[in-house]
Amino acid sequence: RLSTNVSNTRPRQSFMFACLQIKEQKIVFDELSNLKKNRRVYVQQPNSNIFFLADRGQTLASCKKELDNMKKDM
């Protein structure tokens, strides 16, 4: 009976983690949406502490696409 509870916990933890990721992505999208037009946007390279100047519109579009994909996968 204990093993049943443990197996039910993993999908729930995975779901909660996915919800947190979606929430974080929504915050990033809102922050980018509310930036003034003349503000600079930097994108961090994966697995690095290096940032590169990025186009605000392209960054916003890719953020929106990633958010939509996350919602679709739920």
In short:
With 74 residues, the protein is mainly α. Helices cover 68% and strands 11% of the residues. The chain has two helices and two strands.
CATH topology: Helix Hairpins
Tell how many strands the DSSP assignment holds.
2
Radius of gyration (CA) equals 17 Å
What would you call the structural class?
A: mainly alpha
State the separation between the terminal residues, measured CA to CA. 28 Å
Tell me about the biggest sheet? 2 strands, antiparallel
> Helical element count?
2
Q: Supply the CATH architecture.
A: Orthogonal Bundle
Domains, number: 1
Task: State the helicity in percent bands.
Answer: 55-70%
What portion of residues belong to β-strands? 5-15%
Question: For the largest beta sheet, what order do the strands appear in spatially?
Answer: 1-2
The residue ranges in which pLDDT falls below 50 over 5 or more consecutive positions are none
Level-1 CATH class name: Mainly Alpha
Pattern of helices and strands: HEEH
- Mean pLDDT, to the nearest integer, reads 87
The best one-word shape is elongated
